């Protein structure tokens, strides 16, 4: 079933055509990696999917409706993202964990929080740590947990393991595989790691010079 659909989509900023004429369909439950040279437009593609930036031509549909017709809050709740920069809010880890519940105006679900901390092999003692006291890898994992607390249907991840060592990279990959296999989550993952781009995924898209150059099925 077409879930996220790009029809002749471009993103142009002044004279610069960052992405051009992208047409593709992503089905519910797919795990797709996105590769390509530096500066080819991979992050911009994910930003369009996350509605962080708006396309300038063509149509993007999500679950049968144009992306711009969604209330931003509803869209952000259904399509979560975590980018390389691992931006944390407030002062402490707890501020970040509370954030999704403040947005959803719900009480914090400690059972779910505990499950996610367990999944990422982190203890709940981290809740009281200051953001500035975290390593790059820890920040990245807290960002992922914060995204997942929104309970998204789609997760967009952009080079989330590039700051992690091999052990933590494999841990994050195994969490993504678990979310995909056990919860049917649709995942789009930008990576520069050739092996990672083939592990667990069912399709790989190569973006070159702002357009889709190749599709591969695994
Ligand atoms: N809003 C914008 N206006 C102008 N140029 C932009 C804009 N956003 C991105 N670019 C340019 O478009 C190109 C693609 O950027 P993007 O970050 O999507 O590439 P990428 O494939 O993710 O690169 P990397 O692998 O290095 O992270 C880059 O040259 C970037 O400088």
UniProtKB/TrEMBL annotation:
Family annotation (Pfam families):
ABC_tran
Transport is among the record's keywords: yes
Which residues belong to the signal peptide in this entry? Answer: none
According to the entry, every stretch annotated as the ABC transporter domain falls at 4-218
Key word Transport present: yes
What's the protein called, per UniProt? ATP-binding cassette domain-containing protein
Q: Extract the PANTHER family matched here.
A: ABC TRANSPORTER I FAMILY MEMBER 17
Q: Which domain of life is it from?
A: Bacteria
Question: MF terms per GO, please?
Answer: ATP binding
Cite the entry's keywords alphabetically. ATP-binding, Nucleotide-binding, Transport
